[in-house]
Amino acid sequence: MSNLPFDPLLLAIAIPLAVAVAIACGLPKRWSIRLAYVGFAAPALMALHTWFYFAGQTQVHGYAYLTNYSTGLDGIDGLGISLKLGLNGISLPLFVLAGLVGLAAGLYAIQSTAERLKIYLMLLLVMQAGLMGVFASVDVVFFYLFHELALIPTFIMIGIWGGRDRSYAAMKVTIYLTAGAMLSLIGLIALYVKSGAPSFDLITLRQIIAARPLGETVQNNIFALLMFGFGILVSLWPLHTWAPLGYGQAPSSAAMLHAGVLKKFGLYGLIQIALPLLPHGAAHWSHTLAALAAVGNVLIVGFITMAQRDLKQVIGYSSVMHMGYAFLGIACYSVLGAGGVVLLMVAHGLSVALLFLLATSIFHRTHTFELTEMGGLAQKTPVLAAFFVAATFASIGLPGFANFWGELTIFVALWQFSHCLTVIAVSGVVISAVYGLRAAAKVFFGPPTEAFARVAAQHPPSDLSWREKIPALILLAALLFIGFWPKSLSTPLDATLRAVYAAPAAVSGK
Amino acid sequence: MDIASLQTLAANNDWLAIMPELLLGCIALALLALEIILPAKLHSRLPAVALLGVLALLVFQLLGFTAGFVESESFNGLLVHSREGQVMRVFFLLAALLVGVIGTISLAKQKLPHTEFYHILLVVTAAMMLLVQSNHFVMLFVALETVTIGLYILVSYFRSSPLTLEAGLKHLIMGALSSSILLFGIVLLYGVAGNPELTGHTASAMNLDSLHAFLAANRHNFLASVGIVLVLSGVAFKIAAFPFQIWVPDVYQGAPTPVTAFLAVASKGAGFLVLLVLARTFSPYAWLLAPVLTLMAAATLLFGSLGALTQHNVKRLMGLSGVSHAGFLLMGVVAAGTQSMAIGAIYFYLFAYLLASFAVFGVMALVAGPDDADQEISHYAGLAKDRPFLALVLAIGLGSLAGIPPLAGFMGKLFIFIAAFKAGLYGLLTVAIIGVVISIYYYFSWIRAAVFSSSTLPDGDATARPALTPVSFTVGLVLGLLAFGTVLLGLYQGVLGQWLNTR
After folding, report:
1. Predicted ipTM?
2. Which of A11, A228, A316, B449 is the most buried (most CB within 10 A)?
């Protein structure tokens, strides 16, 4: 069954979208929920299927499952925009990530007690479709378009189901992310126009630019647009302030999908598009990027994270901090660095989604996110405690979890780039251990605080139910699986990275 | 002039070529006649007659009723029938149809005669269709004046409201001023081009082709450049470009909602078509056109976005955000000087803008109370709870106007950006990006009011909102189609895209 009679990539996008449309058309609630299971499970199954059979697929121009659907703009002298779907070694891990996190977030949303559950599920399904589309698109315009398709529901979900400051948060997130998206859009248009390519699809762009590299100034300017545009989307310091605020206010499933998957769009864009096509630009900006990431994201945000008193803020800031490692890996500009970033993206996506999920489950038991008002929850809910501690270990980067491989690879690559930055980056691990373990200790261990004892007396906390456990298990299992067998992802990744990065490396003389 | 030459001239009058415009005029006259003939109780059917007539013409136009005349001249060079003209005919017929539908909602809330509204609407539409096909300054000016005078009446149609009267007066004064500026520019150009001392002087300087030839022979004539700037200023008033946009907020607020929509979409579309034709005619003066239009585009973009930021009245908001859309389109016009794909991009943008704007104006007409000028953003609070369908249409329309993928407005902006980038307009692009980000803010606050906030205040009272008009089947169908079209055009550019491609 390695060859399905249909296109798994298209289905992974179309099924959630179709379910969302069906719900929007006024399906009764019971059927909406049943269909939503299908809508969330289908992309995950498709993703696992493509992962399992990836090695055996025939590859065209380095892409497996390559198909092309016309939207009427791909004529001979047209703009060359068409819905082109395919997976290469870089997009495959993220496609799998999107499927798994989407399934977990969907299952967690279905069991939640959100008001207007139907609309909530509908928006999540639209987001899921967009996410699958982002990583399956070979065409740059659709890559961007699917990103926005996934982004809009985030704004709406923060605005409707968010916490106290939801209006302000929704507005701030919208403006920041729109600004970032517009900058990167201009960068992508610049790439298309300056390369003189007849088409927006990456394969053609790569071929044209390999034959005729862009001038140095042009590369530097375009890379700056992409770096800061994508940088805002990935919360590059000092443009990160939307992230903790937005994640603090967002409902759990939206935060899981955004922090876990959608945020990786920017990094993915840099690795898949910017680095291979603009080697000079990357070299020119690498020191600025590395310095911002190491000092800003890792150190400064690391210290800010340590000072947080709110569990969701800790997770929000920690995800900003971990993006610093990813930027460092990109700044290295090597196959090793980029590979490490992809692994870290997958690992971080799984672990941060797990943390947001568990944080919400903790909130349902403590009725607060304030760390100072919790304590001793482990006696009442040992399973929840075990999950949270495991997720914290993963996030710190302990061996056995996927994060370890990502960080280790980046550090090795970084050592070749700059010794000093490596020292800073590694010291960041200590920082993340401090706040991670401290948060876990404050929530679960020690004697219960007075405030928590009061809450616990009113609503005796019960341990994780199966409906909460299953999504958590999916994420934890994936973390451990990749942690113990990273080769399952790194083999196709390595092959693609070598092929894609070979041509520009020769040009830039590295 | 002898009989024989008159006969040859008359032989050039291809009445069939302007059949759609003639039929529109006939329907308009028939409406007035029917009102006299028919008994009073049947008068309420007349709008339907008008709309069905426009619909029939639209279908004929889409079926290629007048396709045989494409790429030909008629009426001795007064008119040129181009593919662009064919497409814009569809644009104006569509706009007239939608204005008519919105008109049925808004007029029902007023005690005013209905038939005249449709009569003027059809005449103005016919004039717009002639305007975009004119190839001669006399034709252009007459058509433009027919449009403008019709709009004077339409703007002040709700004559019992003081704000409407104020709008009508402002529109009249500013419109007359701009017409005279335009006319002065035309006369200057005519005089210069007819000067026998200059090389390439021509007796028929009103004809745009011969004017083009004259300008190409005299590339740095001072008087001609003054004339060009004056003509551009006259057109800038129609498209509400900086610094001739000052009338927009008041007139948009005071005018009846369907007329506001007509001004915002059809009048602006006609203005841009004229601008494109003129830019082609004046192309030898690119040294003058490019900087003037670039400055105009940048200032228009910024003024529109910043002005819209502080508005609470949705009609003023639509007016000022429309100014910033004019800025985007002007960017396309500047790019069209060197990139032919920009022309296609402008058409696509106009169609996307038409669909989205009418979706929004349709919802506005339904939400509006008896006082048409009083439409605040706060009236939209809780719309999603009370009327989820209207809130969805509104969100799609505003999202498309803001340029959010995967809606049509995004593709429009994308094409304009690509064209601008190809033309190397980096400064304008920077301004445009700022404009987009600001526009997200004000469109989003509107969506936020409709979707996120509830219609009850914290103390339990309902907000002072006029009662919502019930949605009839036709109106619901039209709004649904507009929203669907906006989404569809964002994902599949199909027919329109093919047309862009072949340019």
Report:
1. 0.77
2. A316
